[in-house]
Amino acid sequence: MATDVEKVKYASPDGSKTWEYLTILTCSLMASSMGFVIGWNSPSIVILMDKESPIPVTASSISTLVASVAIGNTVAPLINIFVADKIGRKNTVLLSALPLLVSWSLITIATSIWELYVARFLAGIALGLFICVVPIYIGEVSSTDTRGAANSLLGVTYNMGILVTFIAAPQFTLSCMAGILLVASIGFVISFWFMPESPYFLVMRNRMDQAEEVLEKLRGKTNVSDEMQTIVTTLSKKGEEIVKSGTLKDIFTSRGNFRAFLIIMLFTVTHNFGGFFAIIIYGQLIFKSASNLMTDYTMNVIIGVTQVISSLVTIFLVDRLGRKPLVVVSGAIAAICNLVIGVFFYAKEYMNLNVETFSLAPFIASILLVFTFTCGLVCLQIILMSEIFAAEIKAIATCLVGVLSGVLATVGLKLYIWVAISLGYGHSLPFLAYFVVVAACTVTIYYITPETRGKTFIEIQRKLNKG
Question: What is the pTM assigned to this prediction?
Answer without folding.
Answer: 0.77
